[in-house]
Specification:
By secondary structure, this protein is of the alpha/beta class. It has 23 helices and ten strands.
Length: 638
Amino acid sequence: MGGGMGGARRAAGMQRERVGGRDAAAQRAENATAPRIDHLLGRIASLFTPYRSKLVLTVVLVLISAGLGVLPPLLTREAFDLGLFPVGGGAPNVPVLSGIVGAMVVLWLISSGLGVWQTWLTAVVGNSVMGRLRIRLFEHLERMELAFFTRTKTGVIQSRLQNDVGGVANVLSNTVSSVIGNTVTVLAALVSMLLLSWQMTIVAVILLPALVIAQRRVGQVRARIATKTQESLSEMTAITQESLSVSGILLAKAFTMQRLEVARYESENERQIRLQVRQAMSGQWFFAFVSVVMSIVPAVIYLVAAWLILRDIPVTAGTIVAFTTVQSRLMFPLMGLLRVALDLQTSGALFARIFEYLDLRPAITDAADARDVDPTRLGAVAFERVGFRYPDAPAESRPTLQDVSFAIEPGQFVAFVGPSGAGKTTISSLVPRLFDATGGVVRFAGDDVRELRAESLVGAVGIVTQETYLFHATIAENLRYAKPDATDAELEAAARAADIHDTIVSFPDRYDTIVGERGYRLSGGEKQRVAIARVLLKDPPVLVLDEATSALDSLSESVVQRAIETAASGRTTIAIAHRLSTIVDADVIHVVAAGRIVESGTHAELLGRGGVYADLWSRQSAAPITSPAPAAGFADLP
């Protein structure tokens, strides 16, 4: 009873941690001061460099539209002073009034046409910049080392690509035209107002500096909220990716945790709602105040006009009408400028998150003088006193590998056995340089792997892991991932060699069968054989088998083992194994424990020594393995 209650409390505690907890990076982002947009403007501006010609044309159209926008108020004054109420009195001058009205109509038609053209240009430029930014970010992430992805949630990465880049789309599309258009319109309106009456202009704009200062403070608040909002979106995306994947659903159903998963999502969703409301409301009182001020100004202008008239300063009715018309038109572009400024400050948080990823430098890159793998020594692999510690491992922890040395000749079958955490998989990861050794030298075809081009090195290595990854696509498409131009005959030959062709053709859609997410519509053995067929299409000189059969039952294992033997024929093969029965024919078996090689030899030699390997063999022989089990007999090794 006590143990059950303790387990329930621990489960509840873990769930609260999942619901309420966030990684340190998210917490730091929430507590950080919003990024200053002026530090980002140069980088943002560089995104528009490929579209100079369209931007120049947009600027020209904006300037023309703004220039045309100055004329209607002036024509309004003329319509009053020359058409409706001619100087000296008399009836309205209809011909003059008609000409002025006609000119105003033509101006509005031209302005509307230019506006449509301008909108098209800004849409093309903005969406093109956003698309290039997304591709640039995706391409950069593809170059990141494997360690980056082992410490970062997939959902968080997806959020940077989708939510963050999508969040700046409106800014990228409208900023240029909005800033230029509204700025020119505001300046043109101010010029028109000065031409009409400098005294009334001073009264109309006296509060503008205070509004600009207030706007900056509001923008800083919105930027901080935007940072928190995007972090929350990242967490929601991560929860969705984890919980609604096939593996996540199976786990939740197996432990009846659906309600807790819903609670986890609901908690983050409620936080997102609060943040969205805060972001929507931030600045609303500011804009309400600006609107009230700008609406009151015309009434104040009437009082100012009366004051000027009483002091014998000539002010005509047309001047007053034209001035208030211009002033009312000033309100919208001014509000637009203030909103754009707020959007830029808000989007600064998103751009900062995007540039944060773009500024990451892959830990594994090609040297300036990197060369291709030597084709005359393909298949040779050697470790020379190799040590390795994972980048995020505690400084006081034991290194994953210590002083590991061995040599593999082309065509040899070499196996590594040992307990979980001994370093076997790490050894297989260092061969194609998925990680860099922190000590010693890893050689491939006689060269230090750090001196080889990554594409050439990885192209010479084929990997089959315990957890086979298949795309949600057809069997044929999954196979052609190794060789996009492979013919149907080549697919069939590889499938036959992997002993999976007969199974494939038994499906109604044969090679066009959709395997489902991660291949869940296939059995474990079928997935492994598809993976082996995929490696056979790649035809690499070195094959790495990382516990490729440990998750299979005995029957599936025997079928997959035959396929592996076919795939390994004529290649250098590095096998990581728990089940010793799968590697008894290896040319050399290395026993790994605590990051070191403690025994080496053939199966017969190791049995004859009566050491660790012999002890493990006797244990596995006495209790045949019918399902995946941890390697026994290694726990007490030094």
